[in-house]
Amino acid sequence: QVLKENGRAATAQSEMWVYASAERSGRQIRCFDYRDSRSGECAKEFLEGFHGVLISDGYGGYNKLNGMTRAGCWAHARRKWREAMPKGAKVETSKAAQGYEYCSRLFALEKKLKKLSDNERREERQKSVKPFLDQYWAWLESFTPEKGSKLEDAVRYSLNQKEYLCTFLTHGEIEISNNQVENAIRPFVVGRKGWLFCDTPKGAAASAVVYTLVETAKANGLDPYRYLLRLLTYLPMYGESPSDEKLRGLLPWSGGMKAECTV
Q1: What is the dihedral sign for C-alpha 176, 181, 182, 183?
Q2: Closest CA to 148 of 137, 140, 156
Q3: How far apart are CA 39 and CA 19, in angstroms?
Q4: Tens of pLDDT along 36-60?
Q5: Helices within the chain (DSSP H only)
Q6: Residue 75 in contact with residue 182, Cβ under 8 Å?
Q7: Least crowded by CB within 10 Å, which of 4, 57, 60, 205?
């Protein structure tokens, strides 16, 4: 909640969008972007000009994005099965537990491919992972869940997202989930339980900047306090219009910052 947004009630819900670079990216980035809505137009505007692979959950707003390849998140698919599992569920007697087991086995298969190059991982996914997923899709079609049940939600999620959940098979450079974002946003979610809301849009935007700096520093193995200390020391010395070269020297992956701030 942001209390003083123009034309909106103090109880209106705003959104903190979070973006992350891929795990195999040479530069780890965690970017927070405050918006007053969850409209897909927010992501479309932020990602304008991006033409790579976007890994996301099943939110329909992402369908507004153009010029990029969509990939689904298997962590979200697995979460649907977990939510559908009754207490004490076992693989032998519960379809939800079986679905959860399928997803867990997929993550186990992927773990074995961790050290392969992008091309090698793509080839191995076609060879060993695709046949396993074919079994999963066939299993989904083999039963009809009760209408309105959480089990039906889990089945529908996977079937509706099938195209996107299969994207990773032909893209060895990406992971099978967007856990980078999930891990980056967790401190924000925990913090929000304490501070509850922002007072103004400027305050919300400022918090997005701070979370971006801190989480990106952490993602690059830097100590956030030492990194922020150096930013606040050097930036005032550079004046109001620092050169691109000086700014590049302050980025978390620069040699100087790594030397001064690595944990």
Answers
A1: positive
A2: 156
A3: 15
A4: 999 999 999 999 999 999 999 999 9
A5: 40-46, 74-84, 95-112, 118-124, 130-140, 150-160, 162-165, 179-195, 201-219, 224-238, 244-248, 255-261
A6: yes
A7: 60
